[in-house]
Amino acid sequence: MEMHVRIIRTDQHDTAWVEAIAESSGCNSCNSHGNNNGGCGADNIGRMFLGSTPHRFRVLDPIGCHVGDEAIINIADGSVVRSAALVYLLPLLLVFTGAILASRLANPATAELASILGALAGLALAAGWLWRANHHIRYNPRYQPIILRTVTTPFFVLKEI
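User: That's the sequence. What structure does it adopt?
Assistant: Structure tokens below.
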């Protein structure tokens, strides 16, 4: 998915902070004129970056943009789904697994308390794993938006003669 952005700050490590420029993203087949025409939902994902206040987010900048430049960024196909699975499904799986294992291993009198403690242990394990995964994939282009190219905006200045 590609999106039109404006560079608002550049950082070291070849990264930049950008704001989405209010324009439609995707192919507009999603909810076109109130109808659901069976689109992929990319426009809904693009709206996540727009809103009443501009959202600012960090992107990889391999081409060296400058503040004020307009650019096209790309969010890799499947990265949103992979990130959602990582952030939502993994903790749920570990919480339920911890609760079930702890209740099965405990004696029947303390099974409820063991289940609660097992769920908390699963949640703590998920939080630690997510923290580590975040540091590991922080600059990985597979999971990060990346600037593809700059966009020159045509403009002209009227002068009084």
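The longest strand covers residues 2-11.
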